């Protein structure tokens, strides 16, 4: 696909372990992750931490980027971006990071107070802008008829805003929150992928803010997406989105229809 599909980086792996008093004869606590040893970080990859002790001994695993907490997992598998009891594993999507070098750390804490951390330093390159005609904000009213397309836990009816920028496709809901997904736009076609997680999000709180909307995070269907493809056309100030394939019925209920430019 487009240049969005790959971000090259020079990676230096540093593994540091800091442990509290362990039982005599116990092996030192360590943690590895799926970022270890990588010299190329794609835009989208799974960041999974693997401690060397059983899950019954783990209190939680933190994922930090540039020293700031970005995700926490309390149960195995320890996946950045979340998972549904081992299914629908989420992703680290790097579109929101500024170009340059960043530090990615997985930190495990055991119930007896021991810690270990696995740290990787990598460069992230710029992400291309969306097509000029598509970029910016669009609005439409999602109706009860639209929601017939949705699945369990349907999105709210009312005025939605859809924003395409370098970070992702933001769909901001009538309740003042929303979700942002990775996407890739080509002439006439948009491929939409998984939710982008930029800050801890749980029980409708946390996440990030944009354009007066807060607690943007979570999912529209699952942590893994599913992925979708839409045909897009613009006539005057209207954007028409038509699903070619969509695995997420809740996103289908929001996206498919006629949008009006808002900016």
Written account of the structure:
- The protein has 263 residues and is mainly beta.
- It is 4% helix and 49% strand.
- It folds into two domains: 3-124, Immunoglobulins (Immunoglobulin-like, Sandwich); 136-261, no CATH class.
- The protein has helices spanning 144-147, 249-255, and strands at residues 6-8, 12-18, 31-33, 40-42, 44-45, 48-51, 58-65, 68-73, 78-79, 92-93, 100-110, 115-124, 136-142, 158-164, 169-172, 178-186, 189-195, 201-202, 205-206, 208-210, 213-216, 228-235, 238-246, 257-261.
- The chain has an eight-stranded antiparallel β-barrel. Strands 2-12-11-7-8 form a five-stranded antiparallel sheet, with no helix packed on it. It has a three-stranded antiparallel sheet with strand order 3-6-9, with no helix packed on it.
- 37% of the residues are buried.
- The model is unreliable at 1-21 (pLDDT under 50).
Secondary structure layout plus pairing:
Elements: E1 6-8, E2 12-18, E3 31-33, E4 40-42, E5 44-45, E6 48-51, E7 58-65, E8 68-73, E9 78-79, E10 92-93, E11 100-110, E12 115-124, E13 136-142, H1 144-147, E14 158-164, E15 169-172, E16 178-186, E17 189-195, E18 201-202, E19 205-206, E20 208-210, E21 213-216, E22 228-235, E23 238-246, H2 249-255, E24 257-261
């Amino acid at each position: 696909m487009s240049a969005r599909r790959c971000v090259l980086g020079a990676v230096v792996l540093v593994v540091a372990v800091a442990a509290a008093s362990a039982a005599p004869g116990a092996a030192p606590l360590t943690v590895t992750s799926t970022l270890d040893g990588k010299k190329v970080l794609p835009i989208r990859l799974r960041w999974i931490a693997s401690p060397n002790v059983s899950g019954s001994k783990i209190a939680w695993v933190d994922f930090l980027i540039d020293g700031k907490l970005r995700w926490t997992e309390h149960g195995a598998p320890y996946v950045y971006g979340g998972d549904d009891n081992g299914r629908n594993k989420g992703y680290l999507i790097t579109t929101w990071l500024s170009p340059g070098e960043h530090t990615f750390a997985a930190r495990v804490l055991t119930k007896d107070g021991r810690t270990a951390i696995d740290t990787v330093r990598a460069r992230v390159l710029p992400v291309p802008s969306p097509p000029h005609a598509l970029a910016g904000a669009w609005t439409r009213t999602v109706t009860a008829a639209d929601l017939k397309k949705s699945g369990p836990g349907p999105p709210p009816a009312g005025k939605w805003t859809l924003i395409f920028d370098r970070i992702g496709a933001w769909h901001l809901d009538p309740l003042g929150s929303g979700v942002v997904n990775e996407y890739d736009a080509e002439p006439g076609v948009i491929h939409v992928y998984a939710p982008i997680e930029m800050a801890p999000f749980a029980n409708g709180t946390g996440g990030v803010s944009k354009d007066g909307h807060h607690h943007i995070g979570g999912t529209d269907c699952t942590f893994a997406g599913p992925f979708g493809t839409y045909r897009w056309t613009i006539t005057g100030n209207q954007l028409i989105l038509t699903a070619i394939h969509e695995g997420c019925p809740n996103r289908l209920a929001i996206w498919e229809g006629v949008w009006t430019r808002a900016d």
